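Exercise 7. Given the encoded structure of a 283-residue chain, write a plausible sequence.
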C-alpha cells in the first residue's frame, strides 16, 4: 500500500488494467440491461392483462454466455480478453467471420483511460473510489441512452443516493452542497421540460435526464452544475445541428441528451473547479 501511495504511475497502471475488465463488463450491461427491462415490462403488461407470463430462457447480466449474434458461437475466455482479443480476431467472429463492432474495444479503452486519469489525479484515496464508480456508471448510461434513448432508473437513482452517501464525508462537495445539487439538477431540467411542453405541446426530453443531472449534482455539488449544463448543451446543440444539416437527420426523431450530460459531468469531475475559477477570474 505504501508503494502505491509513493508510486502514482504504478497505481494508475494497475487501475488501468483492472478497468479494462470493468469496461468489458460495462459492454455487457449496455447490451443486456435494456433487454432485461423490456422483458420485465412485457411480463408486467401480461400480468395487468390477466394473461399468463410467457416462459423465457433465463437472461441477466451473467446468463447466457456471450455469443456471436449471427452464428451463436459462444465466446471463449481467450476471445474475451479486453482489447487484445478484438485485435487478435481482427474484429471478426472466429467461427463465421461476422464483424464485431469496434465499439466494444472503444468502451473498454475509454473506461480504462478515464479510470487511470482518476487514479492519477486523486491517488490511492477514497476520492478515487468514488470517481471510478461515477465514471463507470456515466459511461454505461451514456451508451445505453445512445442506443435506446433510455436512462434506466436502476442506474440513475442509485447514483443519486450513492453521491449523497459519498459526500457525507465531503469528498467532492459538502453534504449541503450535494443535497442542493441533487435538487437543483432535477429541478432545472424539470422546469425546462415543462416550459418547453407548455410552449410547444411537445416533450423536449425524458425524465431520465432530470435524474441523471440530479445524480451529477449529488456527486459534484450545485457549484459544478452550470459547467455541466453549459458543456452538455453547447456540444449537444452543435452535434444536433450538424446531424440535421449534414446527414439530414429527421427533426422528429429524438436525439438522446444523456451522453452529453454524462460527458459534461465527466469534464466537470476532472476540470470543473478549474474551469469555474478561470471563468470567475475574468470578473
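Solution.
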Amino acid at each position: 500500500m505504501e508503494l502505491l501511495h509513493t508510486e502514482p504511475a504504478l497505481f494508475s497502471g494497475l487501475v488501468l488494467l483492472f478497468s479494462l475488465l470493468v469496461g468489458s463488463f460495462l459492454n455487457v450491461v449496455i447490451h443486456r440491461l435494456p433487454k432485461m427491462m423490456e422483458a420485465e415490462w412485457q411480463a408486467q403488461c401480461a400480468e395487468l392483462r390477466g394473461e399468463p407470463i410467457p416462459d423465457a430462457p433465463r437472461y441477466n447480466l451473467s446468463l447466457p454466455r456471450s455469443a456471436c449474434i449471427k452464428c451463436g458461437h459462444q465466446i471463449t475466455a481467450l476471445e474475451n480478453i479486453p482489447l487484445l482479443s478484438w485485435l487478435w480476431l481482427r474484429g471478426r467472429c472466429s467461427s463465421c467471420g461476422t464483424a464485431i463492432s469496434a465499439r466494444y474495444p472503444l468502451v473498454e479503452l475509454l473506461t480504462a483511460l478515464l479510470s487511470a486519469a482518476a487514479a492519477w489525479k486523486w491517488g490511492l484515496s477514497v476520492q478515487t473510489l468514488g470517481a471510478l464508480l461515477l465514471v463507470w456508471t456515466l459511461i454505461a448510461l451514456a451508451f445505453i441512452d445512445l442506443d435506446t434513448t433510455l436512462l434506466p432508473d436502476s442506474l440513475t437513482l442509485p447514483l443519486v443516493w450513492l453521491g449523497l452517501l459519498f459526500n457525507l464525508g465531503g469528498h467532492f462537495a459538502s453534504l449541503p452542497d450535494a443535497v442542493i445539487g441533487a435538487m437543483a439538477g432535477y429541478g432545472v431540467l424539470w422546469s425546462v421540460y415543462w416550459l418547453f411542453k407548455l410552449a410547444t405541446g411537445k416533450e423536449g426530453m425524458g425524465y431520465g435526464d432530470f435524474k441523471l443531472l440530479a445524480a451529477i449534482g449529488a456527486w459534484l455539488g450545485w457549484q459544478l452544475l452550470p459547467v455541466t449544463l453549459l458543456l452538455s448543451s453547447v456540444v449537444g446543440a452543435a452535434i444536433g445541428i450538424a446531424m440535421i444539416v449534414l446527414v439530414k437527420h429527421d427533426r422528429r426523431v429524438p436525439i438522446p441528451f444523456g451522453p452529453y450530460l454524462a460527458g459534461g459531468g465527466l469534464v466537470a469531475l476532472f476540470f470543473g473547479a478549474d474551469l469555474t475559477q478561470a471563468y470567475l477570474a475574468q470578473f
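Remark. The CA atoms of residues 57 and 64 lie 9 Å apart. Students should compare their own answers with the one above.
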